[in-house]
Amino acid sequence: MKLGRHVKTGRHDLHGLTGAYALDALTGLELDQFEHHLHRCPPCENEVRGFRETATRLALAVAASPPPELRERVLTLASLTRQLPPEVREVPPARSPWLPRMTAAVAAAAVAAAVALGVVQSSTQQRLDQAQAESRSVAAVLAAPDAHLAVHRTTAGGVATVVASPSRHAMIISTAGLPALSGGKVYELWFVSGGTARRAGLLPAPASGRTAPLLASGLAAGDAVALTVEPAGGTSQPTTKPIVVVAL
Amino acid sequence: MSAPDVPGSRPALRPLPGREEDLAELLTLVARGDEAAFEAAYDRLARPVYGLIRKVVRDPAQSEEVAQEVLLEVWRSASRFDAGRGSAMTWVMTIAHRRAIDRVRSASAQTQREHKVSTVVSVAPEGVAETVESRLDAERVRRCLDSLTELQRQSITLAYYGGHTYPEVASLLSTALGTIKTRVRDGLIRMRDCMGVSW
Questions:
Q1: What is the tens place of the pLDDT at every residue in B100-125?
Q2: To the nearest whole angstrom, how far is the Cα of A17 from the nearest Cα of chain B?
Q3: Where in chain B is the domain with CATH 1.10.1740.10?
């Protein structure tokens, strides 16, 4: 095997990679080189397009019905997920704009941004970027088949948005419109079960009235989630009446 | 599966959105946040998407997860679909294939795949027309695959259905990298012509 030649792929060689590219069989440096080349090689683009259409026939030949419950889940999650706006500027992209190539984690984190932030009209790219920087765990919670969402008003004002996945033993919480706290006080999150509360974390400081998604793990079956106002640094047991309790 | 129930307020849609143009139209509506259109698109896409992912990922539970991600991605990024650059079905299947590949190429999934025997899951009953249609598709694909050389056919199926990189395919078939690269390409040219794909 001519490894040297493989690593140092020449322009001529790149043309021959259309097939492997169309089947997603290129990786690493070679993939980057080919995609760079592709945008300046209309015949290559054309060939890739035809190969992709061909691959679609291969895909249709193995069609199979998913479990029926997937339908309701996807439709529900869709109704809670903000959509990407169309691309209106002509910017030469690093990768094809037609097929945004996102890792599962980034894509799911972007969905997390939409869902967990409760973004309705005010979503900004900055906010999405911020959420995309969230860990893979957030993505995992959101991608979990049993992930579900609850939005509750708090007695202090504002809303808390919770996405919980019992199978992942984790949840994400974000808030909007909660009153600012003075004297270093914090909003503390609790898992509540049978009259006992377990610490689940402190909400981050709000920015323009919102708190960024907080991932809390250790969720057990039957837990409810509660928020209380506590002294700086939080406490080991709640000392005030919860401003919201979310049954999951 | 019956024809998706799309409210009559959209006369542009034909009663049976079974064909490509209809899917493209549906995606245009989906991009505007039309949930009924997404429901119809789901009914068109769920089997192709899940089937391909099952083929690549194999594990039913993981396949379902990936299918959920892909179908949500269709909702989320429908505005990025550009009919001038390829068919709607191909846009979706490309997303599905890449997500399936992402899943199997992550190290943990790979170990799981090696050690886990895939389980048989029950398949939901289907409408007759759809079964016939997909059977015809499958038959056409089989016939065209048969027209390839053994090396072309194995290279394509290991890469696409197997989710292998082409260096992995070369290793599996004990064949030089350059040869695999060429066989994938000329095999696809032959498949494309055999199936009458025009782009």
A1: 999 998 754 455 544 444 333 333 33
A2: 6
A3: 1-125
